[in-house]
Design goal:
The protein is mainly α and about 775 residues long. The protein has 37 helices and no strands. The radius of gyration is 36 Å and the shape is elongated. The termini are far apart.
């Protein structure tokens, strides 16, 4: 016989991109939720809020939601005893304290009204507490004794029920007998006591549902057990979490519904079925509405469905991460590429429209909280891009409804998003009506980011960047409600890697913004007056980062090989910035951003082989200027040392790649392993193509075979790096052999030099000196 269904609540989490390197956002770290459950008072359902985390028991009662047993005793005492005294008497006092001299107000009241039945019941209930577990003795030394004690308690409970005259006390004795029989593992007796005394009850109070909870656990028929679980779940808030797992989700819902005698019971089945559904649950919502439209549980289901839709639509739309909660079948559609992640958004918006159509077709005079349904309606109208409808619904709420502070905050943010998103592409700005809302919510990173993302989608990358710069600044004077950090991806992302997401503005600007977009941002910051409170906040970060912005602009031009524009941008960063951030100092093989070697005369991991006869302070501006000078000389047909200058230029381009000592000319940091990025010069950074080209030009203008051989050796080094980069991304297997064409050419044309040059780099100095 099936004794007890032991269940584990399964974590409904998103698929996780595993990285051995460290943290990667997933689950609640990326989930978007503007319609916040904590605003709407569903406290007793709070364990079942939509979340990417596992369900965890928490505080489900507050001043507005009393524990049912406390409330039942409060009503039993006709409201004449404070709740604190009731809780103390029922849960804390020892049985010996139930006498006429007790200081507890509930005990005093019961003696005052001569309710000795209740006093005797409470004493007996206290005696039974030691038997309310499967094994009372953790060392299992007196298990037989425990069974005897329970049997005696069950007998006494049934006697107490017979002797009691008050029907409420009779019910409580029966409940004790049922609970004791359950822990005695006498499930047949549980069924017999419940069915003989409670089955068919018309006045079903909390004791009925407490008893039904144990009767549910003792039921062998899965469909009947699921039906009973649904009734307990709906009516006993403190039993919801423990009875949740007794509902069999594998059964056809009709098999469970067949046990219902009245509409309310059917509605309760739909309720628990919907809460078990991580995917679309509109059918259960409609079923519940048809059977019990005035239920608070129906409102809660709408809240859950709203939060699901937000996750399915907003999480991909704003962050471009997959929805935070993993759903079966997503693996087939999502491969990490942003286009794939966004592919479901349109379908989920259509589903949001289905839910909106249901609300519009419903009679709101019959529902538990019509105002809440209108709040949901406004949010769904925003989700479905019906901005004018959304704004009209919000205006109606503001004029005719009594809104709490939290509800006002809710519709303010929805309205701010709607009027921002409703603007035309190419003319979107931060509207005056939105500015105070942004200030009020300055600590809510995901809301700030969503406004920025809407502006970015409309072509206003300048204001978007300014808002992104404010993320993570909630420790400032502009502290709003507060929320977790915002993480996001770019549309160019093609797959999930450790480096494919952003959590701060500069990394995103560096990877995504064009030089023209960054130039507009710099101009805007430079021209800002910052007179009003909003402008002070808006520019509070980037006004102090102008030199860095010029640095990033210069890097973008370097990536495009636009050296003049790069030099112009680097110059505007200023000497103070270079001295503070890129001063030359000995760092060995440090990953820091200081220049520790001259990129023209020194090649990383190679002994010095070129005389350093042109010393200058190393920073991005001076290196760019020197690169233009050397290129100019190398390109002049009258220059006698063209091979020399082409070789120095090639060294610089080589050192500006992942493999060199001047990688900071193209990147803000260098990772320990090569990683594919969406930065436009990703191929050049990993493949040394420009270096190979200029070593080839040095070869063409060389005057001696030894120097030609050295040029080929350097081209072979570039080719080796290019081939190696194609296997760098998460490659742990054995790489195939590579036939380097430059080594082949070196061996064929200069066989006498092949062994020395191909073997190691200690001979480079001799070959360079042989240039003339």
């Amino acid at each position: 016989m099936k004794i007890l269904k032991v269940f584990t609540v399964i974590l409904l989490s998103s698929s996780i991109t595993v990285s051995a390197c460290g943290y990667y956002p997933f689950g609640e770290d990326v989930r978007y939720c503007f319609f916040k459950p904590e605003y709407f008072g569903f406290t007793t359902y709070s364990e079942f809020h939509y979340t990417a985390n596992s369900f965890e028991p928490g505080q489900i009662f507050d001043e507005q939601h009393l524990p049912p047993n406390d409330e039942a005793w409060f009503n039993y005492c006709h409201g004449k005893v404070p709740l604190g005294s009731i809780h103390q008497a029922v849960y804390e006092l020892d049985k010996n304290n139930f006498d006429a001299n007790s200081h507890n107000l509930m005990v005093q009241y019961l003696y005052a009204v001569k309710d000795f039945e209740a006093i005797q019941y409470l004493r007996f209930a206290k005696e039974c507490e030691l038997a309310n577990a499967f094994i009372a003795d953790p060392w299992e030394r007196n298990d037989t004794m425990n069974v005897r004690i329970r049997s005696l308690f069950i007998y006494n409970a049934m006697e107490g029920e017979c002797m009691a005259k008050n029907p409420l006390i009779k019910e409580r004795y029966l409940f004790l007998a049922i609970r004791l029989a359950f822990y005695d593992q006498d499930f047949e007796r549980v069924r017999e006591i419940f069915d003989s005394n409670f089955k068919g009850s018309k006045n079903k109070g909390i004791i009925y549902y407490y008893s039904l909870y144990f009767r549910t656990l003792a039921e062998e028929d899965p469909s009947l057990q699921s039906f009973m679980a649904a009734q307990v779940f709906a009516n006993a808030p403190d039993k919801r979490f423990v009875v949740y797992g007794s509902f069999d989700t594998e059964l056809p819902l009709e098999e469970v519904l067949q046990h219902a005698q009245i509409k309310e019971e059917r509605a309760n089945v739909y309720l628990l079925s919907a809460i078990h559904t991580p995917d679309r649950a509109l059918n259960q919502i409609k079923g519940m509405y048809a059977n019990n439209p005035g239920s608070e549980g129906l409102d809660f289901l709408l809240l859950r469905e709203m939060n699901k839709i937000e996750d399915w639509v907003y999480t991909p739309y704003y962050s471009m991460f997959e929805p935070s909660v993993y759903l079966e079948g997503y693996d087939e559609e999502y491969n990490g590429a942003v286009t794939s992640v966004l592919s479901r958004v349109a379908a989920d918006r259509r589903y949001a429209q289905d839910v909106l159509d249901f609300i519009n077709s419903s009679n709101l005079s019959k529902v538990y909280n019509p105002q809440f349904w209108l709040l949901i309606k406004a949010q769904l109208e925003f989700v479905t891009n019906r901005y004018s409808n959304c704004l009209a619904t919000i205006e109606g709420l503001k004029k005719h409804a009594t809104l709490t502070i939290d509800e006002q905050r809710q519709i303010e943010r929805t309205r701010a998003l709607a009027i921002t998103a409703a603007q035309a592409v190419g003319s979107a700005v931060i509207l005056e009506e939105v500015k105070p809302v942004l200030l009020k919510n300055a600590g809510d990173d995901r809301f700030i980011f969503a406004i920025g993302r809407e502006l970015e989608y409309k072509g206003n990358t300048t204001d978007a960047a300014l808002l992104y710069s404010l993320l993570g600044q909630s420790y400032t004077e502009y502290v709003g409600e507060g929320s977790d950090s915002a993480f996001w991806k770019a549309k160019k992302n093609k797959g999930s890697t450790f480096m494919d997401y952003y959590g701060e503005h500069m990394a995103y600007i560096d990877a995504v913004y064009t030089p023209e977009q960054l130039g507009l941002l710099i101009k805007d910051v430079e021209c800002s007056k910052q007179e009003d409170e909003f402008s002070k906040w808006k520019y509070s970060i980037l006004k102090n980062e102008l030199p860095m912005l010029y640095d990033y602009l210069g890097m973008k031009y370097i990536r495009q090989d636009s050296l003049k524009m790069a030099a112009k941008s680097f110059r505007k960063a200023g000497n103070a910035y270079w001295q503070e951030n890129y001063s030359a100092w000995e760092t060995g093989d440090s990953f820091g951003n200081q220049f520790d070697a001259n990129p023209f005369f020194q090649v990383k991991y190679t002994p010095d082989f070129i005389p350093l006869n042109d010393r200058f302070t190393l920073n991005k501006y001076t290196i760019t200027q020197k690169l233009m000078t050397y290129l100019s000389r190398a390109n002049k047909s009258s220059e006698k040392n063209r091979d020399y200058y082409y070789f120095l230029v090639a060294n610089c381009y080589y050192n500006m790649t992942y493999y060199g000592n001047a990688w900071m000319m193209r990147r803000t940091y260098r990772s320990g392993t090569q990683t594919i990025t969406i930065i436009e010069d990703n191929d050049e950074y990993n493949e040394c193509n420009l270096a190979n080209r200029y070593y080839g030009l040095a070869f063409q203008h060389a005057k001696t075979d030894k120097f030609r051989a050295l040029c080929l050796r350097m081209q072979a080094k570039c080719a080796e790096n290019k081939w190696s980069s194609s296997y760098s991304e998460y490659y742990y297997g054995e790489r195939p052999e590579y036939d380097n064409p430059y080594y082949d050419k070196l061996e064929k044309n200069y066989p006498e030099y092949y062994k020395e040059l191909a073997g190691n780099c200690t001979y480079f100095e001799d070959y360079f000196k042989a240039r003339r």
